[in-house]
Amino acid sequence: MMDETFPENVEKQIYADALRKATHDYEELVAQLSVLRLLNDSFQAGSNFYAICQQLVHFMTEAMDVENASVMLVNHERGELRLAAAKSFCEDEGSVFVGRDWSGKAFRLGEGIAGKVAQSRKSILINDTHKESSFVKAERQKVSVRSILSLPLLHGDLLHGVLNLSNSEPGTFDKKKEYAFNLIASTASVALSYASAVEQLRQANEQLESRNRELAAIVAVSESLHSNLELDAVLDASLRNVLEGFDFDVVGVFLRSKSEGVMELKSYRTLQQIPDIESYLQKLITRFSDTIASSLSPATYFRTFTDSPDEGAGQSPHRVCVGIPLSNGDDCFGLVLALTSRESELDEDRTRLLSSFCNQISLAIHNSALISRLKENIRELQETKHQLIQSDKLALLGEMLSGVAHEINNPLAAIMGYSDLLLSDTSLSEDHHAMLKKILRSVDRSRKIVHGLLSFARKTEIQRRETNVIQLIERVLEHRNYDFSINNIEVVKKYESDTCIAAIDPNQMEQVFLNLVNNAFDAMYGRELAGKLEIKTRLTDDPAVHIEFSDNGHGVREADRNKVFEPFFTTKEVGKGTGLGLSISYGIVKEHGGELSLDDAYHDGARFIVKLPVVSIQPSIDDGFVRREAPELNGGRGRVLVVDDEEVVRDFIKVALTSDGFVVDCADDGQAAYETLHAGEYDVVITDLRMPGALDGRRLFLKVHEDNPKLAEGFIFITGDIMEKDANKFLKESGRNFLLKPFALKDLREVVNKTFGNLTL
Fold first, then answer.
1. pTM over 0.70
2. Please, are residues 539 and 496 in contact by the beta-carbon 8 Å criterion?
3. What are phi and psi of 352, to 5 degrees?
4. Residues 329 and 430 in one domain
5. Which of 427, 466, 592, 699 shows the greatest Cβ crowding within 10 Å of its Cβ?
């Protein structure tokens, strides 16, 4: 009987077990669906990103028989996972099972359970952690973890993070739960995507509104600043806008000193009474200026300092010091320093707005500087024009004085000469001798007055000396090395040798080289491409020193090439050039007997070529004559022809030389002298440089030099104006002795004797 009923009981038991399991599965499914509904309801209520994470772990631990739950979010840029929300174990040192190579700070993708899930984007189920040798118990784990289920929070191709679930009993999770929890994870992922999109839209709207506010503020500031180009007014408006717009207590503007290169306080505004505020602000900028200026880059444009500006803590009433560089390109020419007693720093938007304000301040100050420079250049141009007018007047005055000096020096020469002759007369009394000496002193005084007038009216002559052109160029480059380096301009030097000697006026030629280097710098300044200045020197067969200055700047337009050396012609912007640099340089090189030209064949920028002849330096001109070592003659044994249009000068020289034993004849102009020289034989010719008629002194010399070079060696010139340019040049080139009117008897005898002595050498 029992055997017959046993199968029936077993069958009932099987049915009961199946019913209980089905009931359990049903209840579990209902619970899961309930969670999905609750999650969906809460997600649709407009939860933000992190609220969804918190709701998710709360639902999992409260409704899904999960002891521990956490959400880790992925940072795609850093390639790592970090904890966002947790329940039951979530502390900084919470209980988690990770791979043996875990960094202890965050999960890298592929590191630990969560890292592997994030990398593979597939869930991982571990029924018993004791049987998984690849995982170890965390050192500070507070709860027992035997089973783990990690699920990716994945919406389409977008991975938000990982949902980690764990229990203290093994075998808690199975495939059905994995499937159900994946549905929950998918629902949460959709909600996270929606919340992320909403957050991005909100941030975009805030940024747009912020940009609009900034733009309106910047436009208002720009209009305010640029309405007045006076520097003081610009600084005052700048400080007022910063002080009122950002709630600072003190604002100061510092500009870099051109002479010392340090930041100096130019203007400030304050809402507080601070003793010796100027010294206080200068102390701050001394401490912080280098740090602020070095932050001149898009990434670190704004610098904030929260430590006390004084050495002793608590001495400063201001806790936040904000410094913003004022720049023009890469050149930091000033700083804005703003201070507040509040502890908080500016947020990112306010920092950006303050930066924009300071950009406008930089532009306004730069424009103000340009206007000031323009006014100064206009003033300098007017002064230059005035100087040119004065120069023309002086040139005319020089011509007038030259004629006047000639007329004055002739009688002075006679007075001085005859006075010297009378002094040699021993029959005169001492009183007569004293009177003659007074006459000579008066003549000498008159001579100096005339000489001084000529010195004032004439242009200073070139002071040539042997100069190393290479060293002169290097000295010029030293003045601009800093400007070249900070403006990305390379200087390439190609010298044929380290020494290149020419007889030049180093001061004037330095001005020429500096003008050419400055023009090259201006042509390359402010361009995006790197600049290059090439300087090349060589010695030509002429012989001449050949110097090239080549740049890769904007060059010279074809239509302007014939005008570059004209006075007041310039291609630079208004206020940046007078148009005199190249013109003056051209004149200096010409006076040296050289050439300054623009290379028409060079089209990569501009190339200027300087050619300086290598000339020997003539012996220096003294007040009377070129002194040469030669034996003196004691008079006699020579014939002299005296040529001068002034009778008193001729007679004095004749009397003086005749008394010394010379045979002396006279002629009153160059033509008569030329005919006399052909009619007789003479050893020495004493002639005035300036005489009426076709043959003055220099033309007579040149004509005689062609006919009789030997006789030309015995020429002695008389002049009243060695500062006249052509006369000075002729005397140097001829190499002959000369006398400067009025001259003393001893000077006449000395130069005649030395000339005769040279003829006998």
1. no
2. yes
3. -65, -40
4. no
5. 592
SS3 letters for 30-70?
HHHHHHHHHHHHHHHCCCCHHHHHHHHHHHHHHHCCCCEEE
Q: How far is CA 516 from CA 509, 554, 585, in A?
A: 11, 15, 9
Domain boundaries, position 538:
465-613
Shared-domain flag, residues 41 and 154: yes
- E strands, 117-244, in order: 124-126, 135-136, 147-155, 158-167
How much is the pLDDT for 699? 93
User: Are residues 655 and 598 both part of a single domain?
Assistant: no
User: In terms of domains, do 537 and 453 share one?
Assistant: no
Which of 571, 525, 576, 512 minimizes the C-alpha distance to 551?
A: 525
Q: What's phi and psi for 622, nearest 5 deg?
A: -95, 180
With respect to residue 12, please indicate whether it lies within any of the assigned structural domains: yes
Task: Let me know: does 306 contact 345? Beta carbons within 8 Å.
Answer: yes
Among the listed residues 590, 610, 598, 522, the one whose alpha carbon sits nearest the alpha carbon of residue 562: 598
CATH number at residue 287: 3.30.450.40
pLDDT exceeds 80 at position 458: no
Same domain membership, residue 627 and residue 603: no
- Is 447 in the same domain as 481? no
Sign of dihedral through CA atoms 59, 64, 68, 70? negative
511 phi-psi bin (left φ>0, alpha ψ -120 to 50, beta other):
alpha
Does residue 304 register a pLDDT over 50?
no
Domains held by the chain: number: 4
Q: How many CB atoms lie within 10 A of CB 137?
A: 13
Indicate the residue among 578, 613, 648 that finishes a domain.
613
Q: Is residue 207 part of a domain?
A: no
Tokens of 639: 């014939």
Rounded distance, CA 164 to CA 166, Å? Answer: 7
CATH of the domain at 481: 3.30.565.10
pLDDT on residue 172: 86
